[in-house]
Amino acid sequence: MAESVVAIGLMSGTSLDGIDVALIETDGESIAAFGPSATYPYRTEDRALLVRAIEEAKMLADRTARPGVLAEAELMLTARHGEAVVRFVATHPQAAKAQVVGFHGQTVLHRPEIALTVQIGDGPVLARALRAAGLKPGGELVYDLRAADVAAGGQGAPLVPVYHAALAKGLVDRLGLPVLFLNLGGVANVTYIDGINDPIAFDTGPANALIDDFMKERTGLPVDADGACAAAGHVDEAALSRLLAHPFFAQRPPKSLDRNDFKVFVAEYAGLAARSTEDGAATLTALSAATVAAALPLLPQRPQSVVAAGGGAHNPTLLAMLADRLGVPVTPADALGLSSDAMEAQAFAFLAVRALRGLPLSFPTTTGVPAPMAGGVAVALD
User: Fold this and answer.
1) Which of 7, 182, 205, 334 has the most CB within a 10 Å radius?
2) Which residues form a coiled coil (predicted)?
3) 18 among the known binding-site residues?
4) 144 among the known binding-site residues?
């Protein structure tokens, strides 16, 4: 049995709200202990820069290219991650013992159908910066964790399922099997775990991205806080039916999404321009719930329970719509002693340890890669 190590995970997700930092102790197969976690919000100008970078990344054909604003965004993103770790270690001195750091970077383009996924973030530059954070020499930073999977023919996403499977081992007595982990970030994805086979995972559709963009356009606010706007509105069922006709939702996995994949489609078919802000938010929230429900027939059998994580797990309106449409109990991860907000950052700490051990990060049942696939690029923290 491998020895557990202290690892830091860094995650900047599709919601573009900030950098999640989490500390765990793990051998890459099980979790020996959960440590502290924190979120460091992006500045308004940082988020605007990332939005511009994502827009410009649509033109990329080379995953290593950083034309125009992409170079500026990568420089900013790397610096902000370094600052986040400095602040985290200052607040939680035990984090200075970390021997491994998992760095996801920021996805600016995800087009697995053309074997292209792009995460900005300079691993070697960040590794040098982390010495200033007080991390001891001799450790390693692991980054670029999706590229090997895509190069081998996989979707490159989702990567968190192997961590979900490790978490599920501690939940069997309370939730039973099969259990479904549901991540509600900018995009929603599910992980189906039966305790016997490799996890089955795929993106189901939009989660928060469309809602957040709609709220920003209508109100100037970045989110529908607590789902209050959606709760005050009415779902346009006719519009919802038009949107659910998109072939992606019935497509069998493996399948994954870019944050903006449905932006144009929704603008064309939802008719939100003619709806109130409340009705628009309600309809988009219902879309997120309904597309998760559309995923259930694609699973081997109906799950006994759903564990919800990510930012959407704090939206009671979305959780209520999910419970209603799924017909399965939906429990926020926090209610089970897990962390809805830190789970993905924890996962990238876990994945980094697996990468250093040469263990697979993805599987044919999660990304469609031909065989279980290791990955990641390691750089010394010296």
Assistant:
1) 7
2) none
3) yes
4) no
Length of the chain: 382
pLDDT at 131: 83
- Indicate the residue type of 99: Q
Query: What pLDDT score was predicted for residue 65?
Result: 96
17 labelled binding-site residue: yes
Q: Are residues 183 and 342 in contact, defined by beta-carbon separation less than 8 angstroms?
A: no
Residue 14 labeled ligand binder:
yes
The domains found in the chain, sorted by start residue, are: 5-157+340-380 (3.30.420.40), 161-336 (3.30.420.40)
Closest to 346 in 3D by CA, of 125, 167, 86, 188 = 167
- Give the span between the Cα atoms of 22 and 138, in whole angstroms: 20
Residue 13 marked in a binding site: yes
Pick out the chain residues at pLDDT < 70. Answer: 1
List of residues 6+ apart from 236 with CB closer than 8 A: 270, 271, 275, 279, 282, 283
Q: Is the pTM of this model over 0.90?
A: yes
Is residue 120 a known part of a binding site? no
Q: Strands, E, within the chain: which ranges?
A: 5-11, 18-26, 31-41, 100-103, 106-111, 116-120, 140-143, 179-184, 187-193, 200-206, 305-309, 330-332, 377-380
**224 marked among binding-site residues:** no
**pLDDT score recorded for residue 134:** 81
Single-letter amino acid, residue 352 = A
